[in-house]
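Thread: guanosine-5',3'-tetraphosphate complex, take 2
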Amino acid sequence: MTIQWFPGHMTRARRQIQDKLKLIDIVIELLDARVPISSRNPMIDEILRDKPRLIVLNKSDLADSRTTEQWIAAFAEEGHACLAVDSSTGTRVNEIPVRARAILHAMIERQIAKGINPRAVRGLIVGIPNVGKSTLINRLAGRNIAATGDRPGVTKGQQWIKAGTELELLDTPGILWPKFEDQLVGYRLAMTGAIREQVLNVEDIAFFAVKVLVKRYWATVAERFGIDQPPKDMEDADEIIRVMEDIGRKRGCLVSGGRVDLEKTSGIILREMRAGKLGRISLEAPEDR
Ligand code: G4P
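Output below.
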């Protein structure tokens, strides 16, 4: 993530979104399907208030589909319509206009009752940096138009982008900040590659990754790295480090004296996880909330 979010940026980002809300009928809140908690803005409910909303879980191609289904059900329980897509290939992206219209059904019916010809539904995509806003806009538009700029201060004239005949989008998405107060959020976003590694210590990121991986996907981890001793206690940091060392030994990451090079091991774990070598991984499930 390249944005430095200072209080002034957050206030400006918030105001920009609130100004845009006046122009649109529905917000498309984009989350990363692998980390729906950590990729969510902490003030989203306050910012959007009662604006109709469709939650879209993006990058669902990288997440574990069973957990994604659980998320969809959990959001539905809270009264939010939710859909999982893959913007990189366009899978299920064409359901977004249909779902948006369904949410706004009552408004559309009222227009018809008044004899007004219903216009295309107007939407705004919002989300934290790197969640896939520009990729989704381009997909929905069927061409490359969205500015990939991720500076919260960027202003330019508003333009509507047609996503088929039923939905129009504001061309600049609303950029929101993640929840910084929670350190774990930073590490989870770093695991997905949304925060650049230089900002956080690679061994710490890998530690948190292994902690989640062994808990949720031990069989996959064991098979991929050829290890067979699960941690005796999932909450014991020494045991997590021991698993990392087992992986390092298997991968030949040794320094003098036969000690494991944890930094090198951490790099391997994160690279393979992000490259999908461990399969589809969800780092957060609804019960983690
Ligand atoms: P943003 O506007 O919200 O900041 O995000 P952006 O669209 O720039 O997407 C961030 C990264 O996420 C891009 O990868 C993009 O290709 C990738 N991405 C977006 N949607 C999906 C998805 O549904 N599935 C997968 N697997 N990836 C997705 P990048 O590494 O920055 O660039 P590149 O690898 O595409 O060159």
